[in-house]
Prior knowledge:
1 helix; two-stranded antiparallel sheet; mainly beta
Amino acid sequence: MIAAPSSEIIEFNLELLDFYAKAIEAEELKGRNYFEGFDDFSYKPKNNIRYQYIENNKAAFENNQIKVNAKNSNTNEVEEITLIPFGKPNVLFLFHALTRSI
């Protein structure tokens, strides 16, 4: 169970949910090397654009993708973005989704 922003309790079977996210370009950064062929990697986004949920966003599902209008927080312009299937959900992403952020 998770507390939603409206203080309602929402119960999910996470195995049945599909999540979609906006793909971002990122730079791969090599981290610690444990031994030959076993390295840690992290990823730094190439830009820091964030999008905000808007009402009447004209969301449409096609070809296993979601096209939706969202507000670019840097420019305050509404843009069409494409969301693609995201890997298995985790609690942080689920909370982020429930706060209606994209």
